[in-house]
Specification:
Order of helices and strands: HHHH
Distance between the termini: 61 Å
Shape: elongated
Protein name: Protein RSI-1
Largest sheet: none
InterPro entries: GASA
Pfam families: GASA
Family: Belongs to the GASA family.
Radius of gyration: 20 Å
Keywords: Signal
Length: 96
């Protein structure tokens, strides 16, 4: 009888892990954009700056690589780790 209880526990643990992995993939995919979604997202992201051309250039470059653009016109980069962590050779943020 003890072996049966352990097998149910093991099955429960395995199913729980499978569900956690599945939900983690769904959560990561939530911020993923398609390449054609980059321009509209970057247009909004760069709407508040006076340097629109360089902002659009780098935002679209970052979006093409990361398939993610943070929400809002400034900040919120933590919502897109790739976008946030991509740096220039001088160590400054590459993405606006």
């Amino acid at each position: 009888m003890a072996a049966t209880g352990r097998s149910y526990t093991a099955l429960f643990v395995v199913l729980s892990l499978v569900l956690m992995i599945a939900f983690a993939d769904v959560a990561q995919g939530y911020n993923k954009l398609r390449p054609q979604d980059c321009k509209p997202k970057c247009t909004y992201r760069c709407s508040a700056t006076s340097h629109k051309k360089p902002c659009m250039f780098f935002c679209q470059k970052c979006c093409a690589k990361c398939l993610c653009v943070p929400n809002g016109v400034y900040g919120n980069k933590q919502s897109c780790a790739c976008y946030n962590n991509w740096k220039t050779q001088e160590g400054k943020p590459k993405c606006p």
